[in-house]
Amino acid sequence: MELFDNISPLDYRYVGRDKEAAKLLAPYLSENARVHYQAQVEAALVRVLARQGICSKEIAREVEQACRRVNAEDVYKEEDRIRHDVRALVNVVRRQVSKEAKPFVHFGATSYDIVDTASALRFREASRMVLLPVLKGLEKTLIKLALRERDTVQVGRTHGQHAEPITFGFALSEYVSRLGNRIQAIDAAKDNLCGKFSGAVGAYNASSLFLKDPVAFEQALLKELGLKTGTHSTQIVEPESLIDLLNTVISTFCVLANLADDLRNLQRSEIAEIAEAFGEKQVGSSTMPHKRNPINFENVKSLWKQFMPRIVTVYLDALSDHQRDLTNSASARFLPEIFAGLYLASERLNKTLSRLVVDHANIERNFAASADSIVAEPLYILLAQHGHANAHEEVRLLTLEAKKKGKPLLGLAEAHPALSRYLKAFTPGQLAVIRDPAKYTGLASKKTVQVCQHWKKALKL
Amino acid sequence: MELFDNISPLDYRYVGRDKEAAKLLAPYLSENARVHYQAQVEAALVRVLARQGICSKEIAREVEQACRRVNAEDVYKEEDRIRHDVRALVNVVRRQVSKEAKPFVHFGATSYDIVDTASALRFREASRMVLLPVLKGLEKTLIKLALRERDTVQVGRTHGQHAEPITFGFALSEYVSRLGNRIQAIDAAKDNLCGKFSGAVGAYNASSLFLKDPVAFEQALLKELGLKTGTHSTQIVEPESLIDLLNTVISTFCVLANLADDLRNLQRSEIAEIAEAFGEKQVGSSTMPHKRNPINFENVKSLWKQFMPRIVTVYLDALSDHQRDLTNSASARFLPEIFAGLYLASERLNKTLSRLVVDHANIERNFAASADSIVAEPLYILLAQHGHANAHEEVRLLTLEAKKKGKPLLGLAEAHPALSRYLKAFTPGQLAVIRDPAKYTGLASKKTVQVCQHWKKALKL
Amino acid sequence: MELFDNISPLDYRYVGRDKEAAKLLAPYLSENARVHYQAQVEAALVRVLARQGICSKEIAREVEQACRRVNAEDVYKEEDRIRHDVRALVNVVRRQVSKEAKPFVHFGATSYDIVDTASALRFREASRMVLLPVLKGLEKTLIKLALRERDTVQVGRTHGQHAEPITFGFALSEYVSRLGNRIQAIDAAKDNLCGKFSGAVGAYNASSLFLKDPVAFEQALLKELGLKTGTHSTQIVEPESLIDLLNTVISTFCVLANLADDLRNLQRSEIAEIAEAFGEKQVGSSTMPHKRNPINFENVKSLWKQFMPRIVTVYLDALSDHQRDLTNSASARFLPEIFAGLYLASERLNKTLSRLVVDHANIERNFAASADSIVAEPLYILLAQHGHANAHEEVRLLTLEAKKKGKPLLGLAEAHPALSRYLKAFTPGQLAVIRDPAKYTGLASKKTVQVCQHWKKALKL
Amino acid sequence: MELFDNISPLDYRYVGRDKEAAKLLAPYLSENARVHYQAQVEAALVRVLARQGICSKEIAREVEQACRRVNAEDVYKEEDRIRHDVRALVNVVRRQVSKEAKPFVHFGATSYDIVDTASALRFREASRMVLLPVLKGLEKTLIKLALRERDTVQVGRTHGQHAEPITFGFALSEYVSRLGNRIQAIDAAKDNLCGKFSGAVGAYNASSLFLKDPVAFEQALLKELGLKTGTHSTQIVEPESLIDLLNTVISTFCVLANLADDLRNLQRSEIAEIAEAFGEKQVGSSTMPHKRNPINFENVKSLWKQFMPRIVTVYLDALSDHQRDLTNSASARFLPEIFAGLYLASERLNKTLSRLVVDHANIERNFAASADSIVAEPLYILLAQHGHANAHEEVRLLTLEAKKKGKPLLGLAEAHPALSRYLKAFTPGQLAVIRDPAKYTGLASKKTVQVCQHWKKALKL
């Protein structure tokens, strides 16, 4: 099988051809990883069996060593023969140990004691070693940018329309906050993943035959692996802890997609407040040599479109007949792809943001274009505060007049007989805001700093 | 508008015609509720304004009373005129207060300070007052049933095939556990809902004009309403706390749908271990008078099919341009329907389970049909424990032989020269299990009790 | 039940309060409509029975009249008593006819012979009478606008970046074409909807008892109603014809959402090429009196976010156990909402487009800003056509130089020793394009006219 | 990159390790295929250019030969350098041709003229060469089975409850019909796929520079490739024709999943009417050696759970800003996976059905268990036909009595004073049905034959 005979873009393009990504992701998300984690659970099982005196420590050591040597290729070869993947793994291990050790491989276990426990382990580690680092890296980049731009006055936009002033740093601090929140959520959710060792139907039928306290044994085994035990299991682990983790993963993806959208829009030709950096040799378009496209932001959005809907599969897999059916077997094999997808989007966003081009002149230009009408809000608020009973409507009419006559709003207000007396009561500070809308940024700068400091500390960045 | 001119089945059928449901749900999920919660936030705002000395207590009292009188009809009439829903609410309140009080209605607020805060409040209360009670009621019913049936030996089923023995109570305790877990999850998620009072673009622009510490004011207001403050907001609250709540709501729905599926399957004619109770006058089918269909379980599954995919809308709404766009305005109006859907499914499941017919004779009959082959697992485990190096394969071949010859597995094992010596080493307790598979239920009964007690205590039922 | 006690925004807001919409939609999409269509099928049944001599014409007339009098309220009252909705309908009809006629009400039918046939009828009529007219109205508006603006030179945008010139009419003609295509698709799909009259399990068991050719009878009945017969049915109609219709409905929704997005973006403050018309009394924002937001385009996008994911429910409902289960009963009741959703989005888009404000000055301004760099593409194409072997790369480097030096691209090209000789070979027409990029609109205008004429004719507008 | 370092189960397991599947799928669905199809479009372009006299035939031949030599590896290497995938392809071709030929490679084309046209070509061919053959193979197997079992009387099941009699062949003919219908739908949809050659913004800007009739040229090019031309395009082809194809693909998947569910249920231990064949050496369970699980049917359902929700991505990709954005670039790369998914499910289902074990004894046993109550429907119908005014209710009460007393329904009816006189009027044929419910199969057998013959002919099988 050649690289480009692959069907998945993860394999032939996004991970498969990116050595750095492949090196980071394969130990958790590849099929080799799946087999290795299962072997790890088998090894932990025999270790605990020995600790509880069910087999000797020599046997445990022997089995552990065999587990360490297991690889996907051997397991698949055996599966070809016997058509059962976990039994194949067991056979591969058994073949490498002494006759005395053989019975203690997979002893008292049902396949899904191994599979589900290994999955929990693997997804916890993928969260810890792949997702959290890249997301924290992105968070750091965002914090750096937000702090740097905390005083860059920018027009705030609602409905795509110029609204009240903010700073560019404040706009970025939205994502510092939302991403920080999601990093905590992934971190917490990964630690709730449960394993199991309760046998074929969850009632510890088999283990009750040879263990005094099978529940205590299960806890010992899962503790050995750093996993939680749910209050119940059937042949499989209750799906809810994994659902919760995937909700955090996919909602994090939404944060990234939203940020990518914002930046794509800020890069529009007419807005042009930011731009992706662009290599000297890079080709923007096959026919329009002048184009500079936000291809990385577009890619992030596109990955989100591919992976977000997969939550539906996750919910569908939450339903399993009685003590389990197997209708999640193929679908669950695709779960690691979601982790890979979020990694790719995060890493790309991080790289792109690290080299983000910010065009301060354009930010100023865009702000200036609306400076006059921005005055409307503080004007109406201050009129109300100074006792005008109908300030909102009055100012609304005035903005219409200003637009019609092409005159500045403030001038019209000052000339307005019914308003001018209120204006005279404004404090100098209030008047300053009215006269220079760039001062009407509220707490934008201060809040940016607070948000960044909060998350730096909370996430120990 | 007559009832049956409605388009939504919630309105013309499931809630609209069920007085009890309507009475319970309308205060949280109807349009009237939406308006009332917004008025409540306006009232809290003026209360806190008075407390901070920005307006007098008399004014606050006056506005509060006006807020209490607001109803959807008046607000809609005003919206027809001015085409802005929140401004309409404000106008309705303003009209009912003195000239002195008018400026302090909605003072310094932007629409979404009210809308999003009121939504958080409403969804928290809907969770607390609608969802948690009905789910706890269902949990209680499940616990009662599980404890009652904790010793009812039932064949466990994996892949729809008879597997190892459990008890029917143990099967139910799966749902006690999963539902208990989700109740806790909803409970926790509802308390994370955030409000905001940071103005049109989130930078406290307006409130900075007249408040020394707008962030402290925001916290005071939200504390007054029992809500949290996020680390950041734009015109709108960060969507993640609501996403997390909806993930718990929809994953709870999955638990119910799974239970409904299991029960539908157990009601199949050939299995017939349980049945929905059936009224004397009830018509099962328009042409097959003998039919007794699991229509309530089917309804639960069907509601799940309608509401589960709506998580996609929730994720789509997580993306909002810059300081917000309004592309969530219509879609978010449908969110209360998801709460109504889960309520309906829970209530119906609870009622149906309360009158569940359990056919112990059929449970026994089905178990007996597989009793012999069930022996295979304990036999292989015990052979392995007693040192047989190849027990699984040996027993697998024996089951094929048993099937071919139509002979009991145990008899073949005892007659097998290579196995009989291992069998002789079995303890009496082990032999008892091998001879009576109904004893091979492991911890099914004990675990059922543990699970029920755990959740009874954890949820204070 | 008061209007604002409703939970669905369709009922309390979007349809329920819009008299015109309610009047148009209720006859097809309300619960009353559902009952009426079922009664219509019962009436057709007895008509065909009489035609085939199974009952008398008098009986048929009697039953038909009773069917015409049926209303949802009576049916629901009866359902409360007997707990079966179709049997309730039958009872209501039976009560109103003579003893002789009673046996021929619902004669030989199973509930879903009526329910599924009535649904097919209803959705066909909803497509014909609700969707197609509003979509054709929208198409007309688009054609009018596109033709009017066919020569309005506008900068084309790819990746949000200025690309090559088009005309605004050409941009609109994209939607003329895509919407036209979808109108045809809905039209075709609605005519594929199938009914059935094959009894409880689809094998014509009951009707075989008293009809010589039950298949011919089924065809006669469905022909009477203008419906197709599938090659097979179980208790229910094969779901595929309805799936196909809903795919056309939802993909039409995607076209509308895409158009709404484009217009929202063109209304951005910095672009400002178009705007929604805005009433004199309309309030744009509760705190920013100057705001003019694209609230209608946002609403269209938002409705799409609510209804698009419901395709998942449609696919889930395609799976029904054996000769059917009932797990589509509640979910299918929500299907009419999707039709209502598309109607609302279409109607709103149509109204908004009818009063669309086009700012030609801004369109020109935006075009002018990129006029120079637009030259890059025709320049490179013509250089290539005149034999330059490396035109794309040469021009790409030149655009970088132009940007760096702030000089016009064409000037640099003419001054470039290796390029100037090619330029001299350009025809006058080619040179004209290079000198005036507004001429580089290709077939934009001509194509606009062709597209509009094609669809006008194809859809008989 | 080793096989098991891959992340996608398609690559490391389902296709990657299945030589037959890989050989069949790679030419259409792999990355190599993507590149080859793009090269094919480039070749067709130069061919048509030559035909229209824009370049010489020698040049065309030279470029065509170069196109045939293109492979993904070379293109990726070039993309690494210049960061644009289509330009990379163009460069690879250009490098291999003479200086004279270079300008005519990709002449007048924009990237997506190639990419979208190649995609349409590829998906049409994947439909034609991968999907339709495997689906027709499955259809044949179904027809064979259905015809073989057309007279096997089986109890029909609605709501999982025994209903009226059918034959097993009739149950299978449901899928003959639904699958046949979908095969036609895929076949039709694939032929609607459109290509384009209208340049960077769809207005034929570039091609207008050197072609008299660019629209005619586009048609000539697409005709050369056997593709349709839409009425409009922007930088990209209108998405609707691809959406329609994917709707047929995914709704076909639903048919397969439904069939797999039915068969899984029929394999339940208590029903046991069918079973997957099971190899002598196959291991059913790692701890329960006697288990025979419907793992292939489960796999089909599981693949459906993975691929069905991807329709959401397809709809999301239907929205592209203005003359296009690139937010479908990554997501669209995953589209071939959906084709692979349906292939895998179909092939597996076909293989499993070819060796399906049908247990006629159990089918009979299950039927016999309900034979008595089945009589209820024909009894009530015939009573009604013979003039009984209240037959349904009378029989309903009788079934309750029969159940309570444990007596046969027919006996009770004959003993019933008010019913017996109607019974006496029944014809011998009618009485035969009442006395032997196995005769009450209506047209099950006949219809099975009709359905099979219809689709055999319609699909030319």
UniProtKB/TrEMBL annotation, chains A, B, C, D:
<dbReference type="InterPro" id="IPR013539">
    <property type="entry name" value="PurB_C"/>
</dbReference>
<dbReference type="GO" id="GO:0044208">
    <property type="term" value="P:'de novo' AMP biosynthetic process"/>
</dbReference>
<dbReference type="GO" id="GO:0005829">
    <property type="term" value="C:cytosol"/>
</dbReference>
<dbReference type="InterPro" id="IPR008948">
    <property type="entry name" value="L-Aspartase-like"/>
</dbReference>
<dbReference type="InterPro" id="IPR019468">
    <property type="entry name" value="AdenyloSucc_lyase_C"/>
</dbReference>
<feature type="domain" description="Adenylosuccinate lyase C-terminal">
    <location>
        <begin position="371"/>
        <end position="452"/>
    </location>
</feature>
<comment type="pathway">
    <text>Purine metabolism; IMP biosynthesis via de novo pathway; 5-amino-1-(5-phospho-D-ribosyl)imidazole-4-carboxamide from 5-amino-1-(5-phospho-D-ribosyl)imidazole-4-carboxylate: step 2/2.</text>
</comment>
<dbReference type="InterPro" id="IPR024083">
    <property type="entry name" value="Fumarase/histidase_N"/>
</dbReference>
<dbReference type="InterPro" id="IPR022761">
    <property type="entry name" value="Fumarate_lyase_N"/>
</dbReference>
<dbReference type="GO" id="GO:0004018">
    <property type="term" value="F:N6-(1,2-dicarboxyethyl)AMP AMP-lyase (fumarate-forming) activity"/>
</dbReference>
<dbReference type="GO" id="GO:0070626">
    <property type="term" value="F:(S)-2-(5-amino-1-(5-phospho-D-ribosyl)imidazole-4-carboxamido) succinate lyase (fumarate-forming) activity"/>
</dbReference>
<comment type="pathway">
    <text>Purine metabolism; AMP biosynthesis via de novo pathway; AMP from IMP: step 2/2.</text>
</comment>
<keyword id="KW-0658">Purine biosynthesis</keyword>
<dbReference type="Pfam" id="PF00206">
    <property type="entry name" value="Lyase_1"/>
</dbReference>
<dbReference type="InterPro" id="IPR020557">
    <property type="entry name" value="Fumarate_lyase_CS"/>
</dbReference>
<keyword id="KW-0456">Lyase</keyword>
<dbReference type="GO" id="GO:0006188">
    <property type="term" value="P:IMP biosynthetic process"/>
</dbReference>
<comment type="function">
    <text>Catalyzes two reactions in de novo purine nucleotide biosynthesis. Catalyzes the breakdown of 5-aminoimidazole- (N-succinylocarboxamide) ribotide (SAICAR or 2-[5-amino-1-(5-phospho-beta-D-ribosyl)imidazole-4-carboxamido]succinate) to 5-aminoimidazole-4-carboxamide ribotide (AICAR or 5-amino-1-(5-phospho-beta-D-ribosyl)imidazole-4-carboxamide) and fumarate, and of adenylosuccinate (ADS or N(6)-(1,2-dicarboxyethyl)-AMP) to adenosine monophosphate (AMP) and fumarate.</text>
</comment>
<dbReference type="InterPro" id="IPR000362">
    <property type="entry name" value="Fumarate_lyase_fam"/>
</dbReference>
<protein>
    <submittedName>
        <fullName>Adenylosuccinate lyase</fullName>
    </submittedName>
</protein>
<dbReference type="Pfam" id="PF08328">
    <property type="entry name" value="ASL_C"/>
</dbReference>
